[in-house]
Amino acid sequence: MSFIQLKNITKDFNSKGAPAVDDLHLTIERGEIITLLGPSGCGKTTTLRMVAGFEEPDSGSLEIDGSTVFDDHKSVPPEKRGIGMVFQDYTLFPHMTIGKNVAFGLSKWSRHDRKHRTKEVLELVGLGDYADRLPSELSGGQQQRVALARALAPKPHVILMDEPFSNLDAGLREKMRFDVENILRQANTTAIIVTHDQKDAFSISDRVVVMNEGVIQQIDAPRRLYQCPANCFVAQFVGKTNLLQGRLCPNLMHVDTHIGRVSLPERSERLLEEVQISIRPEGCRLTEQGKYSGRVERVTYSGDYQELEISLSENLLVDERMTIYAPVERYVEIGSIVSFEIIPQLVALVER
Ligand SMILES: Nc1ncnc2c1ncn2[C@@H]1O[C@H](COP(=O)(O)OP(=O)(O)OP(=O)(O)O)[C@@H](O)[C@H]1O
Ligand SMILES: [Mg+2]
Questions:
Q1: Domain residue spans of the chain
Q2: 198 three-state secondary structure
Q3: Which pLDDT score is estimated for 69?
């Protein structure tokens, strides 16, 4: 049986719009690292707070490790759910040393065990020598790790983290993703991490839950999510993409679009006529005599690649444009005509 189960969870703050979280179903296995990914206001924090017990759902049920923590008849308080929570702003106690911050949740432990466990988790997060410092004497990344150590100290079944990397600069952020994942895996902790950053989600999690307007759009492993986005929202929110309309050929392997025939990575499972496809910019490779061509309208240099905006409208009435990536060593002139191929593995049929 799954370790965490959310069934039909709905939360409406009675604002005029749609519910903050709408009929959410999610099951998580023991030891799994899951991220909730989505734009601002899509219901990520609300979902996390309901799992923690800081917010009550309007309806639905929630199980953790085989016991019901919320349903129509009961609501287990946060401190009895066996959950560790890391808030976005760390919320360390400023006047307590790092050691005391970490030991805070261990008040029911014996003095000896408390001391031992505090030392152990501080070593786990690489801060074994920092127990006597105050939070103000640590860097942002170190404070982040203290918050994680404090949450891990009582050996919770589950860790919930809300935007844990948002206050860090790019370099530190990358290192912290790596460290946090290692720490969670070592302790075999089940984790739900909230982020609006695709890189955070992809690098750290087993599965990613993409949300929009309180509704789950897709749940999948990062690679599958990127290669087979379920709908236009996911295709556009997770990475960049080109959405094209077309007609599915009778062999179910190709789609006829205004730029020509595009191959799918596999036969379509469904018989449809009018379809929409997503083509990733890196799925378009510049070649000498490619099947597709267009005029370069804009070049944006990013260091590791360059993004070309291609106008395909030569023979068309509409101004249709595509974004494709080109290797940096190639000089591309604005106004020139380039030709390219499309790699089927980076093409997907998507729902509207
Ligand atoms: N206590 C509250 N009272 C009223 N509305 C709320 C409350 N908390 C959240 N909301 C609303 O619920 C929706 C979801 O909010 P939530 O905080 O879950 O979003 P989020 O996905 O975490 O966004 P962000 O990325 O900006 O943190 C928003 O429309 C928000 O305004
Ligand atoms: Mg939030």
A1: 4-232, 242-350
A2: helix
A3: 97
Q: Ligand 1, closest atom to CA 11?
A: 12
What is the pTM (predicted TM-score) of this model? 0.89
Backbone dihedral region of 40: left (phi > 0), alpha (psi from -120 to 50 degrees) or beta? beta
What is the bridge-based pairing of β-strands 158-162 and 83-86?
Answer: parallel
Does 20 contact ligand 1 (Cβ within 6 A)? yes
CA of 10 to the centre of ligand 2 (A): 17
Weakly modelled stretches of the chain, pLDDT under 70: 313-319
**CB atoms near residue 171 (< 10 Å):** 9
Report how far apart, in Å, the C-alpha atoms of 258 and of each of 55, 197, 204, 346 are: 50, 33, 39, 18
CA 343 – CA 236 distance, rounded (Å): 18
Three-state DSSP class for 4?
strand
Is residue 142 helix, strand or coil? helix
Beta strands in 50-157 (DSSP E): 59-64, 67-70, 83-86
The alpha carbon of residue 106 and the mean position of all alpha carbons in its chain are separated, in whole angstroms, by 32
Pair of tokens at residue 209: 């839950």
Q: Which ligand is nearest to the CA of 20?
A: 1
- Say what the pLDDT of residue 317 is: 56
Rounded to whole angstroms, the Cα distance separating 195 from 205 reads 11
pLDDT value of residue 273 = 84
Question: What pLDDT, on the 0 to 100 scale, is given for residue 253?
Answer: 94
The CATH code belonging to domain 242-350 is 2.40.50.140
Instruction: For tokens 């990613």, name the residue.
Output: 208
Q: Which fold has domain 4-232?
A: Rossmann fold (3.40.50)
157, 83 Cβ separation under 8 angstroms? yes
